[in-house]
Design goal:
This protein has one domain (32-55, 74-245): Rossmann fold. It has nine helices and ten strands. It has helices spanning 45-53, 75-80, 98-110, 114-127, 143-155, 173-188, 200-206, 224-229, 231-249; strands spanning 5-16, 19-30, 34-38, 60-65, 68-69, 83-85, 161-165, 192-196, 209-214, 217-222. Helix 3 (98-110) crosses helix 4 (114-127), helix 3 (98-110) runs parallel beside helix 5 and helix 4 (114-127) packs across helix 5 (143-155). By secondary structure, it is α/β, with parallel strands linked by helices. The strands form two sheets. Strands 6-7-8-3-9-10 form a six-stranded mixed sheet, sandwiched between helices. It has a four-stranded antiparallel sheet with strand order 2-1-4-5, covered by helices on one side. A hairpin with a 2-residue loop joins strand 4 and strand 5. The structure holds adenosine-5'-triphosphate (ATP) and magnesium ion. Magnesium ion binds at residues 45-46, 88, 165.
């Protein structure tokens, strides 16, 4: 039985100055679960996270967090209400140490005492398996550690809702397993997670519910196995591959013999 929603999105239309990306999108995110989001490149997955975290303002629709309308709130206000996010391309302060990076996020997001921010940063680094490297400069971290730091910064303000944008992309299978463990432990603590990832096997292992987006809309939502087996998802992905194959066969590029 699905639990009650922590987040409700109703009729959301949003995008960028010259481009409308999300079209009348409605979605409910059950509390305490991992909701996976898949969908072809450019289907609006990251834009959806931008709209939830307040980085873009919708032109229509509502975003409700635990019965509170947050549609018009700023990103920092949403952060303080318990929404944390990671970015598809990690953006640490390269010349600051891992601990300072996390402390900055905690201090900003919690707006509480120095001691509390310090403890929150330490706890976040431990949960992201990065405490051992707390004194390393963020700019010198490898990809897995940058991903861990991205998680640590996002959870440092103790969010109830965590948005992960391709946090496992580019990692080896052992590294992906470690990210899965970190995320599973956060879920076990009660954090609700929305996780965008292209890797279907990772989504199968992690997600309780899977949402497939296409062209700024929800194409399908349901049990992960069911969604991945569906004809609609197959066509979305294979249709695209088919198109690419057609173009590849379509002739010799100019200049080639
Ligand atoms: N900052 C931006 N300004 C203008 N257009 C943008 C911006 N970010 C994304 N877009 C455009 O919005 C559309 C949706 O992009 P979005 O990044 O949400 O897709 P996505 O589903 O996350 O794709 P991917 O799987 O490649 O990460 C694309 O056409 C993209 O070019
Ligand atoms: Mg994206």
């Amino acid at each position: 039985m699905p639990s009650k929603p922590i987040l409700t999105i109703k009729g959301l239309t949003a995008g960028y100055t010259r481009l409308s990306v999300l079209h009348d999108l409605s979605l409910q995110i059950p509390q305490g679960q991992i909701t996976g989001i898949i969908g072809p490149n450019g289907s609006g997955k990251s834009t959806l996270l931008n709209a939830i975290s307040g980085m873009i303002r919708p032109t229509a629709g509502k975003i409700i967090l635990s019965a509170r309308d947050i549609t018009r709130l700023s990103p920092d206000a949403r952060c303080r209400l318990g929404i944390g996010r990671t970015f598809q391309v990690p953006r640490p302060f390269a010349r600051m140490r891992v601990f300072e990076n996390t402390l900055t996020a905690a201090a900003f997001g919690l707006a509480s005492s120095r001691r509390d921010s310090w403890e929150a940063a330490r706890a976040a680094l431990a949960k992201a398996h990065l405490l051992e490297k707390k004194d390393v400069l963020a700019g010198s971290l490898n990809l897995l550690d940058r991903k861990r730091l991205e998680i640590a910064r996002a959870i440092s303000a103790r969010p109830g809702l965590l948005l992960l944008d391709e946090i496992a992309a580019g990692l080896s299978s052992e590294e992906v397993t470690e990210i899965l463990e970190i995320v599973a432990a956060l879920k076990a603590e009660g954090v609700t997670i929305i996780w965008i990832e292209h890797m279907m096997d990772t989504m199968l292992r992690a997600a309780d519910t899977l949402v497939c987006m296409a062209e700024g809309r929800v194409a399908l939502t349901g049990e992960p196995e069911e969604v991945l087996r569906s004809r609609a998802v197959e066509e979305l992905y294979l249709g695209r591959l088919g198109e690419e194959a057609e173009h590849a066969d379509g002739g010799t590029p100019a200049g080639e013999v």
